[in-house]
Design brief:
- The chain is an alpha/beta fold and 802 residues long.
- It has nine helices and 58 strands.
């Protein structure tokens, strides 16, 4: 038998009170019967019969009392209360009837007896009445408790008492939302009726708060790891065609959209991978995991995407999850669906907050408590070193998965131990600077110890096999207003202190002070919607100095400068002013210095009075330099500046427009390609600053309709390649090369006047189209090769000054 919340306790208490009252009534009857007995003993012999009858009445009354006591005891257990009370009452009634019969017999046999027998009869009747009342009240109370559901609804407690409905039921009052019961004299409040569940949308430790099933499903994402059902075939990343291969399995067409984020593990292969398709299953684009053995890849589908296909090696673990951009990312990691309840779209079913938190895993990041020690991976010993800190023995099993950030070191790392703390095995993060490592304990493991450099952020999480956890990806977000989907508050600097991956929500967020981005951070948003606005005279929005492994994507970064008019020559009217950066300010959108492994894409940087993006001193980092692609750098004094020492980096697919100077290159070994540098006051300047300059390339770009000059090359003595570009206008001052040598201008669509002044010569202008006749002017220079150019007038002289 189930009682509704709040009603069950009331029912038991009140039923017991009523039974006790019945017991008291029976005791009164007993006392009366004793009085009758004493009176009958002094009566005549005829009263003997009355005495016997009185004794019978006494026995009945005692029986009534006993049965009422049984009813009281039974009331403690709600499931038997009604039956016990009813049985007690029936027995009491039978006993009372017996007493009445005895009293009548006594009256017939001893009409002259004293009135004591009559007293006995009255006492017995009183006992019967009390027992019947006890039975009735007990039945009503238990029935009301069993019914549980309100019988009717009234506007107030006063209205309920005025109506005075059936006392056996409970009723709800709408003015306060309470349930109400009959307390014996009136209806009274029993408290809030069916108080609502506390629904939360963040993780935690509460076992009473709940999260909606739909929210948990959205957070976790749609897991497609079981969808590799097309066996013995792989997906050509370059064509989208599936091809037979016994080492691979692939998925069929899986629905997805350009707004999704796809997380997957790809084969380390330059051919097999994934492909996106349109609504007609026509191939759009694809990619591979070449060089990314066992690494997770995070992919955004291109425009027009309706379907995805992915392949994997049979020996690799399946991992494929698709997240909607509308999901409530909230520090939730990539996991298989919740094992306790089935994920789905039902908002009336709930998963406890604690269950979700348990699935996410145990955060052990605060456990680096042994300072000035590291763990030797080859022996498991803890050894002194002031640069490190390590954990103590942390319990774990062979079924656990650990995710930790290891030092880039061949000696220091982690170690596993058995139940007696004896070393089993270990490993290091050698060559994995700032990378997350996924560690599975060997057989017989009971403990792990792990170390890190003090300068590295703490990151260590443990997942148990019962959670079915496959991997981890931190996707934190700020507090979100669930009613309108917009963040109430957002502090990017604070988010970066505690989270590796930060999602910048839609909105304009003021940045009053410089944000110093630590190594290993990923910042994502939606360009045009996730807007960081410099304010209060802030000189730099992002500052990246001596850092590595940073990704920035999908942001709009705005300064406080005014819009640039590309026809405004008040600051720059000639090449000398461009070279001196006349009229430049002091504020930057993104400032990068002495850093590596920096990836910036799909961004917009504008309205800074010095540089939109500034890169300096990468210290001849021959690998893993800077990659900036697919962005808009507009309305700055200088759009993109590659300053002293910023070498071995790639800049592509950029729109550098309406700046005072579009592009400045001061360093060597950079490749600027596939970009539009148009409608600036001054297009591009290539000049030497520092110890290593020149020998870079500007390829397949458009430098059109820049007001003062398209390109100025000054004092470059180690060569520069300018190839495959469209350079149109200004017609009279298009390209100026001064005091330089080794400059190659080739395969261009060039319209305008080129001037070569001074320098060591040895320059080539060849295989270009639409060079105006006599459009190359020489000023004190020699050794210029002018070959295979097609002039607008149809002539094609082979060379000059060879």
């Amino acid at each position: 038998m189930t009682l509704i919340a709040g009603v069950g306790d009331f029912g038991l208490t009140e039923l017991k009170d009523e039974a006790i009252a019945a017991k008291n009534a029976a005791q009164t009857a007993e006392a009366g019967a004793v009085t009758a007995k004493n009176s009958a003993e002094t009566a005549s012999s005829a009263a003997v019969t009355a005495k016997i009858a009185a004794q019978t009445a006494e026995t009945g009354a005692v029986a009534a009392m006993d049965f009422v006591e049984v009813a009281s005891t039974a009331a403690v257990n709600a499931s038997d209360a009604a039956e016990a009370a009813q049985a007690s009452a029936v027995s009491a009634k039978i006993a009372a009837q017996t007493a009445e019969t005895g009293a009548v017999d006594a009256k017939n046999s001893a009409e002259t007896a004293s009135s004591a027998a009559v007293t006995a009869k009255i006492a017995a009747q009183t006992a019967e009445t009390g027992a019947v009342a006890a039975k009735t009240d007990a039945q009503n109370l238990v029935a009301g408790a069993l019914i549980g559901t309100p019988k009717a609804v009234y506007v107030s407690l006063s209205a309920l008492n005025t109506a005075n409905p059936d006392h056996a039921f409970i009723y709800v009052t709408t003015d306060n939302g309470h349930w109400n019961y009959w307390n014996g004299s009136a209806f009274a409040s029993g408290g809030t009726y069916q108080a609502p569940l506390s629904v939360v949308q963040e993780t935690g430790t509460s076992t009473s708060n709940v999260m909606s099933q739909k929210t948990v499903s959205d957070i976790i994402g749609n897991n497609y790891s079981s969808k590799y059902t097309v066996l013995n075939r792989f997906i050509w990343a370059s064509t989208g065609v599936d091809t037979g291969n016994a080492d691979y399995d692939s998925t069929d067409f899986i629905p997805c959209s350009p707004n999704d984020t796809v997380s997957l593990r790809l084969p380390d292969n330059s051919v097999a991978g994934y492909a996106f398709y349109d609504s007609g299953n026509m191939y759009i684009s694809g990619g591979t995991g070449d060089g990314l053995a066992n690494a997770k890849s995070y992919i955004t589908p291109p425009a027009g995407t309706s379907f995805l296909r992915v392949c994997k090696l049979k020996v690799d673990t399946a991992f494929l999850t698709i997240f909607s951009i509308n999901s409530l990312y909230n520090q939730v990691k990539e996991v298989f669906p919740v094992p306790v309840q089935t994920t789905g779209s039902n908002t009336s079913d709930f998963i406890s907050q604690k269950v979700v938190t348990d699935i996410i895993g145990d955060d052990l990041s605060p456990k680096y408590t042994s300072t000035n020690f590291y763990i030797r991976a080859s022996s498991g010993t803890r050894e002194a070193n002031a640069d490190y800190e390590s954990t103590d023995y942390l319990p774990c099993t062979p079924n656990d998965i650990f995710i930790g950030q290891l030092p880039d070191n061949a000696t220091a790392g982690y170690a596993f131990y058995d139940s007696g703390n004896m070393y089993i095995s270990g490993g290091t993060g050698d060559g994995l600077a700032n990378a997350k490592s996924y560690i599975t304990p060997p057989a017989n493991t009971a403990y792990i110890r792990i170390c890190k450099l003090k300068t590295d952020p703490s990151f260590l999480a443990k997942y148990s096999a019962k959670s079915n956890v496959q991997a981890l990806r931190s996707i934190p977000t700020p507090q979100v207003d669930l009613l309108n989907g917009k963040a109430k508050t957002f502090d990017l600097a604070s988010e970066l202190l505690s989270k590796d991956i930060v999602i910048v929500p839609s909105g304009t967020w003021n940045i009053p002070t410089t944000i110093n981005i630590p190594s290993g951070k990923k910042i994502y948003g939606v360009r045009g919607k996730s807007i960081l606005q410099a304010s209060g005279g802030n000189t730099k929005v992002f500052n990246i100095v001596s850092k590595s492994d940073i990704s920035i994507s999908g942001l709009t970064i705005k300064g406080e400068a005014s819009v640039v008019d590309y026809a405004d020559t008040s600051k720059i009217s000639n090449k000398e002013q461009a070279l001196a950066e006349n009229g430049a300010g002091t504020k930057y959108g993104i400032y990068i210095e002495s850093s590596r492994d920096i990836i910036i894409d799909d961004i917009e940087v504008k309205n800074f009075d010095y540089c939109g993006i500034y890169v300096k001193t990468l210290a001849q980092n021959y690998m893993n330099g800077i990659t900036i692609s697919s962005g808009y750098i507009n309305n700055n004094y200088i759009g993109l500046k590659l300053a002293d020492g910023s070498e071995y980096s790639v800049y592509s697919n950029l729109h550098i427009n309406t700046n005072h100077i579009g592009l400045v290159i001061e360093s060597a070994n950079n490749n600027v390609q596939l970009s539009s540098i148009t409608r600036n006051v001054f297009g591009a300047v290539i000049k030497p600053v520092g110890y290593n300059t020149g020998h870079g390339s500007l390829s397949n770009c458009a430098l059109n309709h820049n007001t003062v000059m398209a390109l100025y090359v000054s004092s470059i003595d180690s060569g520069y390649i300018i190839v495959g570009c469209n350079i149109h206008y200004p017609e009279t001052n298009t390209i100026y090369i001064k005091n330089s040598s080794g400059i190659i201008i080739s395969s261009m669509n060039l319209y305008g006047l080129a001037t070569v002044e001074g320098g060591g010569g040895n320059m080539i202008i060849s295989s270009n189209f639409r060079i105006l006749a006599s459009s190359v002017t020489l000023v004190g220079t020699t050794h210029l090769s002018l070959k295979n150019n097609i002039y607008v007038d149809g002539s094609s002289p082979n060379s000059i000054n060879n």
